[in-house]
Amino acid sequence: VKGSQKCELNCRAIGYRFYVRQAETVIDGTPCDPNGTAICVAGQCKSIGCDDYLGSDKVIDKCGICGGDNTACKVVSGVFKHTLTNLGYHKIVEIPEGATKINITEMSKSNNYLALRSRSGRSIINGNWAIDRPGRYEGGGTMFTYRRPNEISSTAGESFLADGPTNEVLDVYMIHQQPNPGIHYEYIIPGDNVISPQLLAHRRPGEPLNGQLGVPESTSHEDEDLRGETDILTGQSAGTFPVIQPGRFPSHQPENQVPAMQPPRQNREHNWKQVGKTECTTTCGKGSQYPIFHCVNRITHEEVPEGYCDSSTKPIPEEEACNLFPCPAFWDIGEWSECSKTCGLGMQHRQILCRQIYANRTLTVQQYRCQHLEKPDTTSTCQLKICSEWQIRTEWTSCSVPCGVGQRTRDVKCVSNLGDIVDDEECNMKLRPNDIENCDMGPCAKSWFLTEWSDRCSAECGDGIRTRSVVCMTNHVSSLPLEGCGNNRPSETTPCNNGPCAGRVEWFAGGWTQCSAECGSGTQQREVICIRKTEGNFDVLDPYECSYLEKPPNQQSCYLKPCGSKWFHTEWSTCSKSCEGGFRVREVRCLSDDMAASTQCDPQLKPEEKEPCNTQDCVPEIDENCKDKYYNCNVVVQARLCVYTYYKTACCASCTRVANRQPGFLGRR
């Protein structure tokens, strides 16, 4: 919703795009946005600062201080890109004491490992050539999160993350095994002008603070304590921002008020007694347990409710070590590496370490400690998927159009080595053969397509009509030119007559004739005459005798059944020759009721697409100037001498006759 409507109570039904307002305002304190910090107050959206004050614009700076100006700390960051040659541990960066927001991240996945140890030499993560599993590890006074993405598709490298602050100097190493992809490091350290909250709260009046003199000695203890607590509450301690509320400051008594006397302690009949211990937190490897104290009668030692004893005198349970013997060693199984091949049979590896738990720490020990256990396999075969390849399963189809530019297709499938059709993603998409391409069938022309005349006349007697379907469509007869459909649309009806009809004072309607079309839309007719009934007979009258009566209709539309597919054809083309046998053509198509191409027509009823024409002999035109001058001109023809000008003139008739029968016979010499 719009910003001005965020504090209205609006409701939208699931699956619909509109919403309805249920109330002008929501309850005060309702969040304005699902993920924001602003809340609604009196129908208005109000922001909340990091100091928890309504309308405050204070935010937490990068140093974690509410309302800070980013000067109380310093961000240290960089990238370790040195080229290393020797295998083993190489120091990357030193993390100083007091560092916060620590982030050590490998810039891309590699076979290298990050390692962490304290300045005293204690290994925290991946020390002594033992690779630890991803998880949380305590060190330097903070908790480090060790991440090592293992997804095949992931390209992220290892990382150490910690909130801090650290209480000692820590060193970050890289176990170098392959070229260094780069290590990004970043942490925050306090600035030179940062005042420690602990120092501020516990310093004495007049004591120098970070080399500066504090409040004057004349300042009262009460004011100093109050000011110290106020400073803490207003956020000088990084990371804590409580709301100042009434009653949070310590109360102080006036100097002239005498404290009330405590009543003298009396002998009690009950006291606290240790009756046992809690269960050990671990069954081995050094755990901890605590004593259990109950209130008992001092004389009978019977347990009584704790209310009989003074709670202020109840001993504080102190931790005691238990089950100090080490736990049995075990095989620590690492995660499988990536498969060596993306398809087909490959290999994968994992690290197996002998580990032992003591004092809540897991230590790597010699492998003979785990000899009582069967060692898991460190290598295994793997097959992520079957290697697949592209196969062309069919030839190109015919063009999608009979003329003009269309498309043709073929079937291309991704097939596994077992012959199964799998998803295209299983094959290399860059090598996929084309399964569709354009095809040009030449220019299109238009022509009238006609069906044959219907067999039935619309009237059983008298005048009627026969019908046919006419449609203008594109065709493609490349051997002969065809013109466009034009305006000379062929007639769809033709008259017919099946003989005269016979037919009283009322209108008399005969039976309907057969439908003029065996399928699709047609018409029916019937005879309507004016007659006068007589006994056993009737007389036919002129129609005006019945003009005062409503005349029944003598024609109606009819529809017997869908036509389905029918053969359509164009008109015959012009004959290819004017004599001695030529041919003419027409295009024949099978069309459905909606004039779409179909294959459901009866092939035996298909009209002819080609027929002979002008089979009569050619009658040569008599040229009085073209005659044979010699009786043996047939010899000239047989000797093929008509190519010479002299013989072509001397035997003009014979040479012309043979030239008409054999085009190209005559040449010029």
TrEMBL record:
Q: Report the InterPro entries cross-referenced here.
A: ADAMTS/ADAMTS-like, ADAMTS_ADAMTS-like, ADAMTS_CR_3, ADAMTS_spacer1, PLAC, TSP1_rpt, TSP1_rpt_sf
Pinpoint the PLAC domain residues. Answer: 622-659
So where does this one cross the membrane? Answer: none
- Family matches, as Pfam families: ADAMTS_CR_3, ADAMTS_spacer1, PLAC, TSP1_ADAMTS
Q: Where is this region: Disordered?
A: 247-271
Q: What Gene3D superfamilies does the annotation carry? A: 2.60.120.830, Thrombospondin type-1 (TSP1) repeat
An example of a Gene Ontology cellular component annotation for this protein is: extracellular matrix
As for subcellular location, the record says: Secreted, Extracellular space, Extracellular matrix
Q: Which domain of life is it from?
A: Eukaryota
Give a GO molecular function annotation for the protein. metalloendopeptidase activity
* Alphabetic keyword roster: Disulfide bond, Extracellular matrix, Repeat, Secreted, Signal
Q: Coiled coil where?
A: none
Query: An example of a Gene Ontology BP annotation on this entry?
Result: proteolysis
Q: What is this protein called?
A: THSD4 protein
Q: Give the gene symbol.
A: Thsd4
